[in-house]
Amino acid sequence: METNYEFFVDQSRCIGCQACVQACGECGTHRGTPMIHLEFVDRSASVQTAPVVCMHCEDPTCAKVCPADAIKQDDNGVVMSAAKPRCVACSNCVMACPFGVPKMKVEFELMMKCDMCYDRTSVGKKPMCATVCPSGALYYGPREYIEKHRTEQPINEFDFGGQKVKTKVNLMTAPEVKSFPFDVADFLPWEAQERDPLSLARAGVPDAADNAIWNEDVIAHPESEGTPV
Questions:
Q1: Distance between CA 67 and CA 95 in Å, rounded?
Q2: Domain boundaries defined on the chain
Q3: What's the pLDDT score for residue 41?
Q4: Do the beta carbons of residue 9 and residue 39 sit within 8 Å?
Q5: Burial of residue 36 (number of CB atoms within 10 Å: 0-12, 13-18, 19+)
């Protein structure tokens, strides 16, 4: 494996072409099952999609909560899918992952997720998804290239409540951002001003927080709205 190569995800560049999904299924050890998936950012208002890969946490929660010790991490920090002989399909890892990455494949009774194309990266090749991405939303290579050719800042530290999570995979974001708030609690209205549940301000990530407005009247009087809050 190229020791100076890193994985970078720039979700703002995703064009929703699904090339990464198709290529992932062709990876030798995936046997036709894609380990990457695309999420719609706001399906009701936009067609914008974002690729979701395993972030390969330095201290993976998925492995810590596995009662069967089915999830292993190699010396290079790659967190593997669950081992079939050990996995008991309990879905603990699915619920525990702060990034929502692991998926329980009911038909296989097995948790499967992105393993950074370990059969390829372990012998110096790039992950399948990064080789076919036409927009540069997925990139696998030296950090020096990213710092030279991209204006965004790569970060690999995320805040989940009071916990900091450091990952092997980098997420591209605004240059001034050093640590990314990624907990759903960061987007609740009472997080903004001394836990005031009626505050219109939201902590959130900078770009989302600027466009997010809570309807104070609906929060205070939910019976006035057709749908429950």
A1: 13
A2: 8-136
A3: 82
A4: no
A5: buried
Give the total residue count for the chain: 229
The model's pTM: 0.76
Report the distance separating Cα 93 and Cα 77, nearest Å. 17
| Closest to 36 (Cα-Cα) out of 114, 117, 146 | 114
Whether the Cβ atoms of residue 71 and residue 61 lie closer than 8 Å to each other? no
CATH 3.20.130.10 assigned to domain 8-136? The reply is no
The alpha carbon torsion through 123, 75, 147, 183 (nearest 10 deg) reads 130
φ and ψ at residue 123, rounded to 5 degrees: -115, 20
Tell me the β-bridge partners of 79.
73
Alpha-carbon distance of 161 to 93, in angstroms, equals 19
Question: Which residues in the chain land under pLDDT 70?
Answer: 1-3, 183-229
Taking CB atoms within 8 Å and a gap of at least 24, the contacts of 78-83 are 78/115, 78/116, 78/118, 78/121, 78/168, 79/54, 79/113, 79/115, 80/115, 80/118, 81/35, 81/110, 81/111, 81/112, 81/113, 81/115, 82/110, 82/111, 82/112
CA–CA separation, 145 and 155 (whole Å): 15
